[in-house]
Amino acid sequence: MAQYDAYLIDLDGTIYHGKNPIPEAKRFIDRLKDAKVPYLFVTNNSTKTAAAFADDLTKLHNIETTPEQVYTSAMATADYVANDDAVKGVKTIYLIGEAGLKEAFNRPEFKLVDDAHADYVVMGLDREFNYQKLMTATFAIQKGAKFIATNADTNLPSEKGMLPGAGSLVAALQTASGVQPTIIAKPEAPIMQGALKRLDNPEKPIMVGDNYQTDILAGIQNGLSTLLVYTGVSTKKQVAEKDVQPTHEIDNFDQWEVK
């Protein structure tokens, strides 16, 4: 197996299943730590803060993690908007989202507004989404605000079944406004560029995950090697039908040697 100098690693379905640990995943992270190979957890989830993810990894899964080792789609969205030269100075944001997105935009570059007079409409999963928010966001976009979405994931797995994801809300606003959003999260480029920057732009990184459509395509489309682990969403039958195959495929992390 090739030597990689940095790992970008998905979370749910890859490192754990909700609150349930994946024992092989912890052993994999332990091997990375022992080998002193840099890694960053990269998640499309925008609702939780990096500190909350780090706390869960440490306490629920016995994987000691700092907030600096987590990069969420909310953080990537804030980085993308901050670096957008289309608007100079402090940028006004109409934000639809939860704690993770709100914290990510708590920066000097931004001013959050509660009306349609905004430079950007930024949207993530919001379990308190309602018609008023949809109306305000629609008006803002009609007035010229740029439409930015953390991710396009239509559904999220849960114990009850497949829950509506951020993508289902984004679709409502896209329909109402007639404008297609800029998507930040995997498999799109912005989150990958932000993650690689945080790892000091390694020469030979690899993207690791369980979902071909998000994790593996993110690597393929952005020039990274890929490692698909069959502990989550994608199945071998589904992946076999894809035109572009992952660089590596494993049933679980005990089959992966860190060199």
From TrEMBL:
GO terms for molecular function: metal ion binding; phosphatase activity. Keywords: Hydrolase, Magnesium, Metal-binding. It is an enzyme of class 3 (hydrolase). Its EC number is 3.1.3.-. NCBIfam families: HAD-SF-IIA, HAD-SF-IIA-hyp2. Belongs to the HAD-like hydrolase superfamily. NagD family. This is Acid sugar phosphatase. It comes from Fructobacillus durionis.
